[in-house]
Design brief:
Distance between the termini: 46 Å
Strand content: 5-15%
CATH topology: Arc Repressor Mutant, subunit A
Number of helices: 4
Oligomer: single chain
Structural class: mainly alpha
Shape: elongated
CATH architecture: Orthogonal Bundle
CATH class: Mainly Alpha
Strand order of the largest sheet: 1-3-2
Number of domains: 1
């Protein structure tokens, strides 16, 4: 069964499986209302699914792709002091895409739990058999 219903390129097709950048970015922006890349980069590790550090280049590429697909909107913030920064917000399409991601992650989490449970049972069974054979 496919992980999502999309036919074209799609992040929830697990193209970002190694770090799950896309759903975390969508979640953080939905929660905050708006933010910019530097701020998001600081918060990503709090929702890391792996030990791999998220490369800033990957984050900015993800932001551009989400915007290109209509899931984010952005504008330039030009403060009087400091550098200009691009501020992102989640669109209605982005909120729907986050919901799709939650379905994907929920199914994946269930599969992972089953794998861990089954593997633990197998290890226990094998240890029991080995103990019986060595008596």
């Amino acid at each position: 069964m496919p992980r999502c219903q999309h036919t074209g390129p799609c992040g929830c097709a697990m193209g970002h499986l190694s770090r799950f950048i896309e759903p975390v970015v969508l979640f953080l922006l939905a929660r905050k209302g708006h933010s910019y890349g530097y701020d998001l980069a600081a918060e990503l590790p709090g929702y890391a699914f792996t030990e791999a550090a998220v490369d800033r280049t990957a984050l900015y590429r993800c932001l551009r792709q989400l915007e290109a697909h209509g899931h984010l909107a952005s504008h330039w913030d030009l403060p009087e002091a400091g550098p200009a920064r691009r501020v992102y917000t989640v669109t209605a399409s982005g909120r729907k895409h986050l919901e799709e991601w939650m379905d994907v992650l929920d199914r994946l989490a269930g599969s992972m739990v089953r794998l861990v449970q089954d593997a633990r049972e197998l290890v226990c069974l094998q240890e029991s058999v080995e103990d019986t054979l060595t008596r």
